[in-house]
């Protein structure tokens, strides 16, 4: 492979970058920006390059991409590009599928060829899938890629829910004790990656690990997409260098960090980071103090003067309403927890409500068939911790927004 230097494509910087380097979503623009795809990857060669790159998953857990790929063994493996993007304020995966569908397909094909995959899928909501269908029609090497529509629900992108949907069942989590890497789609070994992870994998495969690491930091190499929302001038999808601080990302989105009280990082299963943490990098290590991590790449801003607790209550309710009510914690625990948060937000002067919310968060944690209750409990704990002054004020009958009960 001929090495491609950074000057061959647009340099990544805050707000611009590698993943959106093509002038349009079509094949010609894609190849003009990135050149031809290398199609001779072996499993070992791709694993070596991925491990050296340090690429971590961009969908939630941040698992090393090489480790996930190396866990696939057995006959007739399957590779799935997951673009379900159930996070309500996340826009990055849809933006990537619409603007760079060929890059996602490249990554899917690279992984599929390295594994000798028997089937390849792209799973995404209908509007984003339309762009992928056009891209598939433009190339011969992607004809075996199957496109499957993902319903617009919070949990439709959970790994076992994805497999269930691809098999024709409901897009709901199922037995999460069985590893997809050994028994996923129709019992076959299954590699499931977020679509941004696959697009990044395509870049590693094209340009190599050293190039990938030429931006970002040693701990967080490359770039990542961030969906910026909330109290911002305009919702935006930004491509930022790894290791960028929360403040840098806010500024890249035109947000005055000095006027921002806190941001929810990672998504609705994420954690709040108060203004005092804005100079920390948006990485798991950087945000560990707050229990945060990049997750699905969401930054939801709450402006100063707006009550974070009041902003959090509808999210707790949304999470309670988002399960399929298959397990006890989701049937009873999450609605009860959301109701307590709503009572605090409404200014009910009942002193034990905060400890009751903590108690319910503890009760649901680790009790579901999937990690949805854990994520919801983590969000509520973070709300009670970061907005403790607001909680205290509400329980005393007042709010930063000015009302008094
Ligand atoms: S824990 Fe909740 S979201 Fe997960 S499978 Fe059970 S009911 Fe569904």
Automatic annotation (TrEMBL):
Keyword Plastid assigned: no
Keyword Cytoplasm: no
Single GO biological process annotation from the record: cellular respiration
Domain NADH-ubiquinone oxidoreductase 51kDa subunit iron-sulphur binding: 312-394
UniProt keyword list: 4Fe-4S, Flavoprotein, FMN, Iron, Iron-sulfur, Metal-binding
Residues in NADH-ubiquinone oxidoreductase 51kDa subunit FMN-binding domain copies: 51-201
Domain of life, source organism: Bacteria
Necessary cofactors: FMN; [4Fe-4S] cluster
GO molecular function, one term: metal ion binding
Family: Belongs to the complex I 51 kDa subunit family.
Protein known as: NADH dehydrogenase
